[in-house]
């Protein structure tokens, strides 16, 4: 009854706060005092538009799918209502689950939760790859209220511990489109099966499509769609610069830009396509004397953390990364983003450029465009609904105007000697350059083909030149003949002035009437044409909607090649018995087993079946948790929903008398009185057991000696 009274009081207080406080601020939302105190300590003065829209919906218990551009405060938009709903610390188990696609984003969210929930007393744990799984087992045993995790490590821990998530009330998918694109379908489905159906689900991202069919597996029920800044997908304080250059000039331009940013002490992110490019660019910058750090997905977790810390503490101004840092990683006071390789997806450019111009600050996004990347740039401008404007020689740089320009040759010429010296003296750089050079470029292939067929090309060119000369001669002759004909016609058409005046006097009267009739007919025709045009416009159904390009770029990309290929393959089924038998009995040679084996659509991977019926790779269940439990001498506490089962050892068995109702209570079995005993022994219990063991051992030794005496005595008298 006390808990119901407390809930009624908190609900009444929230309603009163919403009515009495000023509109537009945090006070208007009726948040708990401990949460409001954490917001004030964090320094959030006013809620952002996405926070003002989503927080009331989340507090009302609705499922929410929210989209807003990067840097708009999406993390606080789901952390604040989550802390308000949980209110205080409970030891029942995990009550809120946050899933992030990358390790860096999960750690950043964990930091925000700790800062905003400082005064709530809620306990938070984070599960990410690269950390010791034994420490994560210990964190789960402490029964945290909030769990933040990446999908792979979350499922590994859940399956290994056979963890029940029946207490979870709130599930948040941060960067939801990335989660569903990265191939985390099995992990998410298995995790969601362990969570109650009455949960509240929240999906947040900077790029979400209008159609929510792709997120049906997330278990949404009547979700509320909130899409802000759909037309303005990037910040209005972001200045975009597009520099056209050749592929072999990109590194020279990048080095010149990085030197300038390092001199001006501007924090800069450099995005590359692969981890090999990251290492190569970092090596060039080091040899050029530009201090830098680098991050990519395969880098060791400790090295990633160390490099990130160096950049955050401004010990270096250049950070070379792949798209790992493009999703949700909040690097404060970032000034510039440089795209060495232009992204193939427009929404990926939005996430890259969203690292700058955050929270009202200005920033610059510089993209180096090669000739083969122009189609991607065109898609980006269609996605942003901006015109493509090429700069002129007399144009001046303006931050609010997006222009496309070319790089002067003087910049690339200055860095050419430096690159030559690097590749001549450094073997590591030379190896990378050789790997790049072995891949034939289209221009090089075209030059080689031209050399082989140079004689034939010249012959064809001479023939075409002769044909052009003949055509030009024929055209000139025809033009001269037409001029002569026009002169003869003009001579014949000349007439006397008197004849013209007489003809005008006869026809002037009737001509006016004909002109009036003609003008009326033209007006009728024009009105009919206008009506037809209106009808066509009214009944016209366009081939594509006005926001087709934008939604096309926001849609989820199906990355699973097997599923794409499955839709493109046409399997012809045989129409005879022998053909059907052959199709069913197709076999292939297995090199390991040295024999023919049956083929299957999927690779033969060892799998295990979970309690929910899902088949998962056997690597998720390795027995590490059981070994850890034996070492720690502890056992997992059973949850309250499992107390009625046979696994509950605190229930007395029904005896013969209880069964017939003669003895014992009529309400069934009685539970043991008193608190549960801890499975960990204190020092007094350990000392008592040791003394008992020593006493038993001395007694056994005494009995052994007595037995030996009896045996020797019997032998002596026998």
From TrEMBL:
Motif (Q motif): 24-52
Main subcellular location of this protein, as a coarse class: nucleus
SMART domains per record: DBP10CT (SM01123), DEXDc (SM00487), HELICc (SM00490)
Keywords, sorted A to Z: ATP-binding, Helicase, Hydrolase, Nucleotide-binding, Nucleus, RNA-binding
An example Gene Ontology CC term for this record: P granule
Subcellular localization(s) per the UniProt record: Nucleus, Nucleolus
Domain Helicase C-terminal as annotated: residue spans: 256-402
Biased composition (Basic and acidic residues): 451-489, 520-533
All residue ranges annotated as the DEAD-box RNA helicase Q domain in the record: 24-52
Top-level EC class as recorded in UniProt: hydrolase
Segments of this protein annotated with the region Disordered: 1-25, 450-491, 512-533, 636-683
Stored CDD domains: DEADc_DDX54 (cd17959), SF2_C_DEAD (cd18787)
Catalytic reaction annotation: ATP + H2O = ADP + phosphate + H(+)
Pfam families linked to this entry: DBP10CT, DEAD, Helicase_C
Protein name: RNA helicase
Top-level division of the source organism's lineage: Eukaryota
């Amino acid at each position: 009854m006390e808990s119901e009274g407390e809930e009624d009081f908190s609900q009444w207080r929230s309603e009163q706060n919403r009515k009495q406080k000023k509109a537009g601020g945090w006070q208007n939302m009726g948040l708990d005092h401990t949460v409001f105190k954490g917001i004030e300590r964090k320094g959030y003065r006013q809620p952002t538009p996405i926070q003002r829209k989503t927080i009331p919906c989340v507090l009302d218990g609705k499922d929410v799918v929210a989209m807003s551009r990067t840097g708009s405060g999406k993390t606080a938009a789901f952390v604040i209502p989550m802390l308000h709903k949980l209110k205080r610390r409970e030891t029942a188990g995990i009550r809120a689950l946050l899933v992030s696609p990358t390790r860096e984003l999960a750690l950043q969210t964990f930091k925000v939760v700790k800062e905003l929930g400082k005064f709530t007393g809620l306990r938070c744990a984070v599960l990410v790859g690269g950390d010791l799984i034994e420490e994560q087992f210990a964190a789960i045993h402490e029964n945290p209220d909030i769990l933040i995790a990446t999908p792979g490590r979350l499922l590994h821990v859940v399956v290994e511990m056979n963890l029940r998530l029946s207490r979870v009330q709130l599930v948040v998918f941060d960067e939801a489109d990335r989660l569903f694109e990265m191939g985390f379908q099995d992990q998410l489905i298995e995790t969601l099966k362990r969570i109650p159906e009455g949960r509240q689900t929240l999906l947040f991202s900077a790029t979400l499509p209008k159609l929510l069919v792709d997120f049906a597996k997330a278990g949404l029920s009547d979700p509320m769609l909130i899409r802000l800044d759909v037309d303005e997908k990037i910040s209005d304080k972001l200045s975009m610069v597009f520099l056209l250059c050749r592929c072999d000039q990109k590194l020279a331009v990048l080095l010149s830009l990085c030197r300038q940013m390092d001199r001006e002490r501007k924090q800069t992110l450099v995005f590359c396509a692969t981890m090999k490019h990251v290492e190569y660019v970092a090596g060039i910058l080091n040899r050029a004397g530009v201090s830098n750090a680098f991050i990519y997905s395969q880098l060791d977790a400790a090295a990633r953390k160390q490099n990130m810390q160096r950049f955050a503490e401004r010990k270096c101004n250049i950070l070379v990364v792949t798209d790992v840092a493009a999703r949700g990683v909040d690097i404060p006071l970032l000034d510039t983003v440089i795209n060495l390789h232009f992204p193939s997806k427009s929404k990926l450019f939005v996430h890259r450029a969203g690292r700058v111009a955050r929270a009202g600050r200005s920033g610059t996004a510089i993209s180096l465009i090669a000739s083969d990347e122009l189609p991607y740039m065109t898609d980006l401008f269609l996605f942003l609904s901006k015109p493509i404007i090429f700069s002129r020689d007399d144009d001046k740089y303006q931050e609010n105007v997006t222009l496309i320009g070319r790089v002067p040759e003087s910049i690339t010429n200055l860095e050419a000697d430096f690159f030559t010296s690097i590749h001549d003296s450094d073997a590591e750089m030379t190896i990378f350059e050789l790997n790049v050079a072995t891949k034939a470029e289209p221009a090089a292939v075209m030059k080689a083909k031209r050399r082989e067929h140079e004689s034939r090309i010249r012959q064809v060119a001479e023939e075409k030149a002769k044909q052009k000369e003949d055509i030009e001669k024929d055209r000139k002759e025809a033009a001269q003949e037409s001029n002569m004909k026009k002169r003869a016609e003009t001579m014949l058409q000349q007439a006397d002035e008197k004849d013209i005046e007489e003809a005008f006097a006869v026809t002037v009267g009737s001509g006016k009437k004909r002109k009036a009739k003609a003008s009326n007919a033209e007006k009728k025709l024009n009105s009919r044409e206008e009506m037809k045009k209106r009808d066509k416009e009214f009944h016209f159904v366009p081939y594509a909607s006005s926001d087709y390009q934008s939604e096309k770029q926001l849609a989820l990309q199906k990355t699973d090649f097997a599923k794409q290929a499955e839709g493109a393959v046409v399997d012809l089924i045989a129409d005879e018995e022998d053909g059907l038998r052959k199709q069913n009995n197709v076999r292939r040679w297995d090199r390991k087993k040295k024999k023919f084996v049956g083929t299957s659509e999927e690779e033969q991977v060892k799998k295990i079946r979970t309690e929910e019926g899902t088949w998962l790779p056997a690597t998720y269940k390795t027995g590490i948790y059981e070994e850890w439990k034996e070492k720690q001498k502890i056992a997992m506490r059973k949850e309250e929903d499992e107390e009625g089962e046979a696994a509950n050892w605190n229930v007395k068995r029904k005896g013969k008398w209880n069964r017939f109702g003669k003895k014992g209570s009529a309400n069934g079995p009685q539970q043991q009185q008193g608190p549960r005993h801890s499975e960990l022994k204190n020092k007094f219990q350990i000392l008592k057991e040791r003394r008992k063991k020593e006493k038993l051992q001395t007694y056994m030794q005494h009995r052994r000696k007595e037995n030996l005496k009896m045996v020797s005595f019997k032998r002596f008298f026998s």
